[in-house]
């Protein structure tokens, strides 16, 4: 038996291959927000990662073609919100191009540093952007956590196989 036995049919690297591989990877769902020149901006992200405990830092990816990118690129502070399984509609709204992301029924208010902070989330932080790393057609944003709240009720929202899901017991 060889090491590649049972691996199926391999394909050359492509954007479609990468998307199909990561559809099989369950990821937590976050919404990233910032204050833009013409008002608040935000987008749904599944690329959120913890980077460092000391100082507390996180990272997320954003496409340079995303409507939120110009505001994220220009800002010093962002909001990071961990969504609960009850927030599938909110995740879809912030993922949809052209949506009124901050109109009703989205509950939000201006937080520290003018960052839009969403209501009813499992957890949120306000972060100071400390770096931005080019990564193909995306940028990896590094941000230091300044303050936040991790006491929201509920269970996390996940993204898997192109759909928002809750945890199963």
From TrEMBL:
The keyword Oxidoreductase applies. The keyword Oxidoreductase applies. GO terms for molecular function: FMN binding; riboflavin reductase (NADPH) activity. Residues 22-166 form the Flavin reductase like domain. One of its GO terms (biological process) is pyrimidine nucleobase catabolic process. Pfam families: Flavin_Reduct. Keywords: Oxidoreductase. This is Flavin reductase. It comes from Streptomyces caeruleatus.
């Amino acid at each position: 038996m060889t090491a590649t036995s049972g691996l199926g049919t391999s394909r050359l690297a492509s954007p479609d291959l990468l998307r199909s591989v990561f559809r099989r990877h369950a990821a937590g769902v976050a919404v990233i927000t910032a204050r833009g020149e013409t008002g608040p901006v935000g987008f749904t992200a599944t690329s959120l990662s913890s980077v460092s405990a000391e100082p507390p830092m996180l990272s997320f990816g954003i496409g340079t073609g995303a409507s939120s990118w110009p505001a994220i690129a220009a800002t010093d502070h962002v909001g990071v919100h961990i969504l609960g399984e009850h927030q599938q509609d909110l995740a879809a709204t912030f993922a949809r191009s052209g949506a009124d992301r901050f109109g009703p029924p989205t509950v939000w208010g201006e937080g520290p540093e003018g960052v839009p902070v969403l209501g009813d989330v499992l957890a949120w932080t306000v972060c100071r952007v400390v770096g931005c790393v080019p990564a193909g057609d995306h940028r990896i944003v590094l941000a230091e956590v300044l303050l936040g709240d991790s006491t929201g009720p509920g269970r996390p929202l996940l993204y898997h196989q192109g759909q928002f899901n809750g945890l199963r017991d």
